[in-house]
Design brief:
By secondary structure, the chain is an alpha+beta fold. The chain has one domain. It is built from three helices and six strands, in the order αββββααββ. The protein has a two-stranded antiparallel sheet with strand order 1-2. A two-stranded antiparallel sheet has the order 3-4. A hairpin with a 6-residue loop joins β1 and β2. The chain starts with 10 loop residues before the first helix and ends with a strand.
Length: 86
């Protein structure tokens, strides 16, 4: 794939956006980006996880090449056997 052409499935990884997730421990809102599987609550230090929709890493054999090793490994960290790791 040419460096200036990327599949649409990698958009949320290549151009992440912030989301708000409620900490299950203290109830505060935590900002987490769409390219992150988890974040730490600044109020209580508890790990929070965002709901992860399927991305290109779940089906595309070229995902590692397209999004890069670091992003690929970070996203895989939050999934074990295709399920979100809590």
């Amino acid at each position: 794939m040419a460096p200036d052409k990327f599949c649409p499935g990698s958009t949320n990884v290549r151009t992440p956006t912030p989301e708000s997730v409620t900490c299950l421990n203290c109830g505060d809102e935590v900002e987490i980006w769409t390219d992150e599987p988890k974040a730490t609550c600044p109020s209580c230090g508890h790990n929070v996880f965002r709901e992860q929709a399927p991305t290109c890493i779940d089906w595309c054999k070229f995902a590692r090449q397209c999004i890069g090793d670091e992003a690929y490994e970070r996203l895989k960290e939050g999934k074990i056997g295709g399920v979100q790791n809590h």
